Amino acid sequence: MTKTSPGNFFEDFKIGQEIRHATPRTVTTGDVALYCALYGSRFAVNSSAEFARQIGFDDAPVDDLLAFHLVFGKTVPDISLNAVANLGYAEGRFGVPVYPGDTLRAVSEVIGLKENSNRQTGVVYVRSTGFNQRDEMVVEYLRWVMVRKRDTNAPAPEEVVPPMAAKVPAEALILPAGLDLAGYDTTLAGSPFRWGDYQVGEAIDHVDGMTIEEAEHMSATRLYQNTAKVHFNQHTEGQGRFGRRLIYGGHIISLARSLSFNGLANAFKIVAINGGRHVAPTFAGDTVYAWTQVEEKMEIPGRGDLGALRLRTIATKDHACVDLPCKGQAGKDYHPAVVLDFNYTVIVPR
Amino acid sequence: MTKTSPGNFFEDFKIGQEIRHATPRTVTTGDVALYCALYGSRFAVNSSAEFARQIGFDDAPVDDLLAFHLVFGKTVPDISLNAVANLGYAEGRFGVPVYPGDTLRAVSEVIGLKENSNRQTGVVYVRSTGFNQRDEMVVEYLRWVMVRKRDTNAPAPEEVVPPMAAKVPAEALILPAGLDLAGYDTTLAGSPFRWGDYQVGEAIDHVDGMTIEEAEHMSATRLYQNTAKVHFNQHTEGQGRFGRRLIYGGHIISLARSLSFNGLANAFKIVAINGGRHVAPTFAGDTVYAWTQVEEKMEIPGRGDLGALRLRTIATKDHACVDLPCKGQAGKDYHPAVVLDFNYTVIVPR
Amino acid sequence: MTKTSPGNFFEDFKIGQEIRHATPRTVTTGDVALYCALYGSRFAVNSSAEFARQIGFDDAPVDDLLAFHLVFGKTVPDISLNAVANLGYAEGRFGVPVYPGDTLRAVSEVIGLKENSNRQTGVVYVRSTGFNQRDEMVVEYLRWVMVRKRDTNAPAPEEVVPPMAAKVPAEALILPAGLDLAGYDTTLAGSPFRWGDYQVGEAIDHVDGMTIEEAEHMSATRLYQNTAKVHFNQHTEGQGRFGRRLIYGGHIISLARSLSFNGLANAFKIVAINGGRHVAPTFAGDTVYAWTQVEEKMEIPGRGDLGALRLRTIATKDHACVDLPCKGQAGKDYHPAVVLDFNYTVIVPR
């Protein structure tokens, strides 16, 4: 009996199955400092406890994407250790803020299964949820991945493809309790632009580019306790499809979010991940740029102090975004430099 | 009079000499986060304060090897700045757990001296001990290093070679006060295998490999305030024996321990280091793999909730361990890929 | 209307203008751990809370240069995003110690303007001040940078070149409240040499060298939330003047300070930055060495337990400092290996 976990294969998943993931994780100011060193994020609410308290947080909450990566990392050993491809995200929502000292754990429910016609692989749909030590939801999302079968002769399960919302509607967005933007200081936050200043269809080139090193993306992925082998092992990846280590897709999401500060400094909190696609792989040495299109402006019922923006951020590699590559619809005619197409909702003071 | 410390040479050491090492160090959650980012460790007890409290710790203790590296680092400027080779470890024991906020200091006693026949170098044996701010022992170990003489004409000291135990016996192992594994959750810990599931002679291939970058091993070694020059200076090492910076051996121990999670997830605490040998040097670009053989099962007097396993973990470079390279006795017939042979004792819930 | 900040150009600055910089920053033990991992600093007062309390601090203060870099980083988006060159520092003083948990913000006042004869650029002189959450000054300094004009036809402002002191005099130095060196332990601090042991004119070769990796200097610069593009973007810098990313000059200052421990271990606190010049650029792969000349010994009125030393630390690349390169006057006849000429004042126990 081997003591080493081989991970789950396609035929190991059952509809309705609930998986309690291992490795609960206490988040600390150490994680926050590393996150800053990895991405250079400057959103004031995550950077300053004073700023955060001024608008109703108990302390500086950790970056929403750090919470997402930590929860995502926990799911990898059970869900995607034998994955061929990470196909997409939907219906992502952030719940209560995560503060240093909170301990996160993750649970996934299998909500869809679909064997591929080649009978080698199948698509697994899960709803993953991260909880804090008080069992409050901190982030949840739907994800689907293509997973290898252990035995290609194993019978196909009944096909279940779950319905998926194209976006999280305004009424489903969760705001932190006690949030009050009356004391929001736009000078300290780094930009005068409020919710009313953004227009649907407006495009923002975030200008700056950031080159990625091997030590950086591996440190990030280890920090998230994400165990996917393709990120860490040059000895095997050197002989693989790309000849090199593949960068965790979430690393690019965080880089793009950090770059987006230049133009979206007051988009201080992500409240939803409507969809996301890793269009092309990235590798050490690539320089990542990003630009954003404002897709929708959403009023939040009962809130005069803030509004939501649904954004589509496109990240590219080795290509400055002044020409707004891939302004078309998601999934079609991608410019060859595009690596990420990310659709998410932020809140901004009015 | 030079203000720069040249370190101690062989003839500077005297039997019975006690050296109080410099640079006391307060350990923080920042160190814990960096340790996670460097090795991707997933042992639940170090990752989650909630998990740790559930089994009787006051908080998440820092990784035992982080405490070891910090104490070891303090000894370097006094013991091994002029070392030619780090020859071995023995009789290592971990004492009270180290928690964030604790301040560590280190003391060494010279317990053996033996000049080499070439009269250029000699072997220095020390017992080093790390203490916390309450003067409680957190880790102690015996180490012997080959150190250069300042003056080859200096007279040889009387030869003293201290006795060394082949292993730390079960009755000498120290368990954290208050430890009670009744509440140990194997699902959260990541493996169903308990003490009773392991067999003497059983071999576990930890499967995964991790490639090391220069920035990583240097950051680790600086974090431990280890000042050995060979790890940091490409300008001189480029003209040296290997043409490159040598990786601190402890970095490989930590990598191997982290990889061992896959197969030994419930081996949640190291209680002894029985012996260790850095069989070959490692360099940036090397990919480290590991496998472990269970050498001995030890019952702990009065404890029905846990037992100890004496393990021998072998780490290799650029060679997957599916063939269990070097299954023979320590020190003989090493497979050319082997870089570390580490014999230590862990505790595991029953 | 673009949402992206282009930064200020020369003609945007006005004499007397006060700029409140964005991105307040709560400093944590995570930052302290990263700082240690980046530079391997061993000054006991920053490393050990116990040591710090023993001499009258409330806790281990963060490294003075970490506070400096964080404040400096905040000023970059407003002051030097369009800078051609960072010309110098003067009149730098450290105020109240910064402890983990403190939140820093920065303000700059424009105190000088001088258009260059080519009308393409001008020199901007600012006095920048970092404050904690109680509005206490933690660091202040004068800095002058050469900044591009947006429009070369814009009229030149009235020329104002502020007076600058050659050094901060002893009576202007600020000591932490409650500091009392009676309990200072030189063994734990790592050196027996006290203030009285240093002589004016004495030179100290710090011996060790440290090679810099891209991942390291970029992580440092992001940690400081310094947004200067030249440090991060290989895609553009590869086609630029040097063909590679330029290392933030402050990274070299911190490396030199860390190397200076070997010879100046008891110089436990920087109290002033009298002047500094980045003589030549540094790049990943360079190995930095340093040596220091004692320029002046200053008694501190009313303090028998400590004195100040004014130091000039020279850092080089790929050149060991045994020959004390550039022992002449600052700014003249620099040895080609010199990259930094830094004049600062430290306090040392008597």
Could you estimate the helical fraction of the residues of chain A in percent?
10-25%
- Number of DSSP strands of chain A? 12
The second-level CATH architecture of the largest domain in chain A is Roll
Number of alpha- plus pi-helical segments of chain A: 9
Shape of chain A: globular
The tally of domains of chain A stands at: 2
Proportion of β residues of chain A? 25-35%
Under CATH, the homologous superfamily of the largest domain in chain A reads: Hotdog Thioesterase
CATH topology of the largest domain in chain A: Thiol Ester Dehydrase, Chain A
- Largest protein interface? A-C, 51 and 41 residues
Give the oligomeric state.
homotrimer
Based on helices, strands and strand pairing, what is the structural class of chain A?
Answer: alpha+beta
What radius of gyration of chain A results from the CA coordinates? 20 Å
What is the CATH domain class of the largest domain in chain A?
Answer: Alpha Beta
Model regions low in confidence, pLDDT < 50 over at least 5 residues of chain A:
none
